[in-house]
Amino acid sequence: MHGRLGQRCTNRYKADSCDVNRLTTFNPLHLTQCFESRNLTLQPPKSAQIRAERVSLAPKIVTPGTVRADKHLAANVHYLLREVSFEVFRGDRIALVGASGAGKTSLLRLLNRLSEPTDGVIYLEQRALHEIPAVQLRQQVVLVLQESKLLGMTVQQALAYPLTLRQLEKQTIQERIQKWRDRLHMPADWLHRTELQLSVGQRQLVAIARALVTEPKVLLLDEPTASLDLGRGDWLLNVLSELAQVHGMTVIMANHQLELAEQWCDRVLHLEQGVLQQDVAAQQMNWQALKQTLVAAEAQQLEEWD
Fold first, then answer.
1. Most exposed among 50, 56, 162, 278, judged by the fewest C-beta atoms under 10 Å?
2. Burial class (CB in 10 A: 0-12, 13-18, 19+), 71
3. In 3-state terms, what secondary structure has residue 180?
């Protein structure tokens, strides 16, 4: 850390009053004076909002905690996820990519405890997920599945439901719904429709709005633009970018549409057969090579099914 601070001081804040030779070793007094001379604040390193440590997920027939202890069992288990580790920071926009069956949805489900890991630990703000009551966790980390349901409710009822559970006042609920309807360009005539009266894309947008009205810390999205037309998909990504950049909401999105992911994300997690192959900044990703890898993986799956 000390070396990085010194290098940053040298490269980014260089001035005549700053003797860069003194930065070859860490000098707290000099570093403080250097920052103070520029009216800068020396910030401590950011702590991860979410941290996954060697997380594995095996089929439900395997008892949690037994795989790593039993080498024979470990050798014969087909993992959905295998020893996945990563960190997520507040305001990150993460694209979770991989071929079908790579483990994207499985990982999203682990992050809000719809599934429990076979091995490893996931932390939210330095607290293990299994120590957080599921209801409390899901008020902070909200998952929108690809085929979400309205549970027999009208759109109005579905949007109000999570806020009613939090015992918000009716006026507050109506204001929150109106706010997110406006942000997502959701027509008023949708409010009294049921699930059967909505298209697949409309249901998907309503499910995303139902998550956003709760204004969570972390939003998990499984293929959110798959059924949206191009215009609505672009608008949704603009809204999500603003939420991350301005309001600090963390968004983790599984998405097959690499062109949209490339435009939107600032980090990429690439899963392949349950293994995390890449965790890189978006600008460092070779998107063309990634596309070729995913196409080849999908083609191989088709051959195996034939």
1. 278
2. exposed
3. helix
Q: What digits encode the pLDDT tens for the residues 125-150?
A: 999 999 999 999 999 999 999 888 88
**The dihedral sign for the CA sequence 287, 288, 294, 298:** positive
Query: Which distant-in-sequence residues (6+ apart) come within 8 Å of 113 by Cβ?
Result: 129, 130, 132, 134, 137, 138
Instruction: Return the closest-CA partner of residue 52 out of 82, 9, 8.
Output: 82
CA distance 80 to 265: 24
Which amino acid, 69? A
C-alpha 9/C-alpha 31 separation (Å) is: 8
Rounded Cα–Cα distance for residues 34 and 57 (Å)? 48
Which tokens sit at 272?
């392949």
pLDDT of residue 173: 96
Asked whether the beta carbons of 294 and 102 are under 8 A apart, the reply is: no
Q: How far is CA 31 from CA 4, 65, 118, in A?
A: 12, 47, 46
All domains of the chain, ordered by start, with CATH? Answer: 50-148+214-305 (3.40.50.300)
Cα gap 53→68, rounded to integer Å = 14
